[in-house]
Amino acid sequence: MEIDATIIVLLLSFSAALIMGFAANKTNFCTMGAVSDWINMGDTGRIGAWMLAISVAIAGVVLMQYFYGISFDSTLPPYKTANFAWLRYVLGGLLFGVGMTLASGCGNKTMVNIGGGNLKSLMVLLITGATAYLLTKTELYEIIFHSWINSTAIDLSLYQIKNQSLDSIILSFFNFNDVDIIRLITGLSVAFIFLFIALKSKDLLNTKHNILGGIIIGLMVVAGWFISGGSLGQQAIEAAEWMDVVPVGVGVQSYTFINPMGEMLNYAASPFDFSLITFGVVAIFGVISGSFIASIFSKQFRFIWFYNIEDAIKHISGAVLMGTGGVLGMGCTIGQGITGVSTLSLGSLLVLGSIITGSALTIKVTSYRIMYEDSTLIDALLCSLVDMNLLTDNFRKYDKV
């Protein structure tokens, strides 16, 4: 029974991820593309789909918490920790946003592209995974980041705040008798805010595939939480404690893809050590498989390689930044931007905003460098910051693009 529960959790994780990959391929759900559409064309259809997915995920989590008693206080990764590492979230999100733009897609889109035959994305996955592996399985993170990142973190427990979730912050200021009701109201209110943002987009409402993509992606994140945190998941967690070889990464979790890319390489180095097969590892293969099936059915599967050395350098640089940013920010556009936000984590919201900012800034800078061939990186960056209302117009050197 112990083995069965663990295996079933992995199989269900693969199945839900397969649906996610299939849906993302068929509906063209892409968070980097969402930011690009918004910045370059003013089209908010895909960013509306992203916001819709977040709304669905939040609503699903708070309803599971209220009606099924599933706890999200201790998760993988620890979204609701009391250690509010704000600089880590901001820097990680910015780096990831820049990286996913250079690499032509976030972690999820990278796997969707692989399923469609994109060999550039396969290279991105391998390099992102290698970067994540080095930062999580060696002392590299400790050497480069730990001391100065850790020194800026805020211990919320010193202020009698249980953790960084919005409901815990609210409960720390008010003495409510029914904690569960406050959590439910808070969660549904935040879900409604994201739904309102999504539905403000006429581009979303005019395209059924964006609506469908957002709903399905959000539901699969909810499914991941239910698989790992429900009764079956709890059986797997309890069973793991009694195993001679404890499986890696057993716990309450849902879909995130950067650290699992590192775990995938870790498993590839020891393919007969089945304890290294994690929820995230099977999810990666699930998304790729779902996208592959969609590509075959739509007859859009084709092999793609780098156009030239500049294209290769851009994607490789983006992969390194995605791996670094994903580890620092403890997630990607799915892992933090939907899964993490669904727990109402303040850090996840910070990562989400930073990813969007980093990606938008990279898109703007690239546009200025293309439009004004003699422009320097600094000039393009300053103009981009002015466009985003982060600097005054005094810093502008070129006309707005």
Automatic annotation (TrEMBL):
<feature type="transmembrane region" description="Helical">
    <location>
        <begin position="47"/>
        <end position="68"/>
    </location>
</feature>
<feature type="transmembrane region" description="Helical">
    <location>
        <begin position="181"/>
        <end position="199"/>
    </location>
</feature>
<feature type="transmembrane region" description="Helical">
    <location>
        <begin position="119"/>
        <end position="136"/>
    </location>
</feature>
<feature type="transmembrane region" description="Helical">
    <location>
        <begin position="274"/>
        <end position="297"/>
    </location>
</feature>
<keyword id="KW-0813">Transport</keyword>
<feature type="transmembrane region" description="Helical">
    <location>
        <begin position="344"/>
        <end position="363"/>
    </location>
</feature>
<keyword id="KW-0812">Transmembrane</keyword>
<dbReference type="GO" id="GO:0005886">
    <property type="term" value="C:plasma membrane"/>
</dbReference>
<dbReference type="InterPro" id="IPR007272">
    <property type="entry name" value="Sulf_transp_TsuA/YedE"/>
</dbReference>
<keyword id="KW-0472">Membrane</keyword>
<dbReference type="Pfam" id="PF04143">
    <property type="entry name" value="Sulf_transp"/>
</dbReference>
<keyword id="KW-1003">Cell membrane</keyword>
<keyword id="KW-0997">Cell inner membrane</keyword>
<feature type="transmembrane region" description="Helical">
    <location>
        <begin position="211"/>
        <end position="228"/>
    </location>
</feature>
<comment type="similarity">
    <text>Belongs to the TsuA/YedE (TC 9.B.102) family.</text>
</comment>
<feature type="transmembrane region" description="Helical">
    <location>
        <begin position="89"/>
        <end position="107"/>
    </location>
</feature>
<keyword id="KW-1133">Transmembrane helix</keyword>
<protein>
    <submittedName>
        <fullName>Uncharacterized protein</fullName>
    </submittedName>
</protein>
<feature type="transmembrane region" description="Helical">
    <location>
        <begin position="318"/>
        <end position="338"/>
    </location>
</feature>
